[in-house]
Specification:
The structure holds two protein chains of two kinds. In chain A, 67% of the residues lie in helices and 0% in strands. By secondary structure, chain A is mainly alpha-helical. Chain B: One of its GO terms (molecular function) is DNA binding.
């Protein structure tokens, strides 16, 4: 059995070989690679792409904002406005659903029986 | 290098950059090539990794703080690039880094840029069974003939720790070489 003493025996070479002129070619290759990286040309397409993206982003933001605001509006519509706009509901439908108290409240809010109205009624209607 | 600060200033100055970088390449391409080749084993892979190393060095020169020497900074970049290269290859093939290394050793026999004899091939096989850190220390000390102080700067390990790693590595390799 052969004994090995790596630190005192003649050194075992790694056995790796390198192609001829490799380092000269490597130097040229790297120097051209780094000069390409130094002069970074921004193509017109890249600039255009930026503006396309910017416009698209503004459009999308606008769309979502409008949708969001519309949504808020719908939530805030009062029952009165809804009834006024909903044409399939007739006046009769509304009256049927009103109680006496509701009618009294409406009369009071409209102030039908103030002095001027009563005078007018007496003069022309009776 | 005599005046490293002045050299770094030349590397950063756009007017002197090209000449200074060429000088850097001439100084370091050979030692870094051997360093990378010892890790990835095949010439073509070493060539790919070494290109990445110098491009990275160029791109990161402006971030080089000068806290460490250019020498150890570049060796660190080269070491990391070689390790990343092996890990990526392992991930792509769905095998471990050790298996990637084993495959690379098997390919050595038919590699035109490896004309090692039986004992050289056996030495490569012996190194491959060592833990990653011991492999690195052994290769840097035995093949690349770097000083412990230099290896310590590159790896950020104490000289004492490195000596212990090298000692263990040599023992295991000698035992492996003895067997048939």
């Amino acid at each position: 059995m052969k004994q090995f003493d790596l630190d005192n025996d003649p050194k075992i070479d790694s056995g790796f070989r390198i192609p001829e002129n490799y380092f000269e070619q490597f130097e040229t290759k790297i120097m051209s690679q780094i000069s390409e990286k130094e002069v970074k040309v921004i193509s017109i397409f890249e600039t255009r792409k930026f503006w396309f993206s910017a416009v698209a982003a503004v459009f999308v933001i606008g769309l979502f904002t409008t949708m969001y605001l519309n949504n808020i509006k719908t939530e805030n519509i009062s029952t009165e406005d809804y009834l006024a706009c909903a044409t399939t509901i007739s006046t009769e439908d509304i009256i049927e659903n009103l109680s006496d108290d509701d009618i009294t409240a409406i009369e009071e809010s409209l102030d039908l029986y103030d002095q001027d109205t009563q005078n007018y009624a007496k003069e022309y209607l009776y | 290098m005599q005046d490293e600060k002045a050299f770094i200033a030349e590397l950063l100055n756009p007017k002197t950059q090209n000449d200074a970088f060429r000088k850097l390449l001439q100084l370091y391409q050979k030692p870094l090539y051997h360093h990378v080749r010892n890790m990835v084993l095949s010439h073509d892979d070493a060539d790919d990794v070494l290109q990445n190393v110098f491009v990275k060095v160029f791109q990161n020169l402006k971030n080089f703080k000068g806290d460490s020497k250019l020498f150890s900074w570049m060796y660190r970049i080269a070491t990391n690039e070689a390790i990343t290269f092996m890990q990526q290859r392992a991930k792509k093939s769905g095998i471990s880094s050790e298996e990637v290394q084993q495959k690379a050793i098997n390919k050595l026999e038919s590699d035109v840029y490896f004309d090692g004899n039986e004992i050289q091939l056996k030495l490569q096989k012996a190194i491959a069974i060592l833990p990653e850190k011991q492999q690195l220390v052994f290769k840097m000390k035995y093949f690349e003939e770097l000083k412990y102080e230099q290896i310590a700067e590159i790896t950020g390990t104490s000289v004492g720790g490195l000596k212990a790693s090298y000692f263990h590595a040599v023992k295991k390799i000698e035992d492996f070489l003895k067997t048939d």
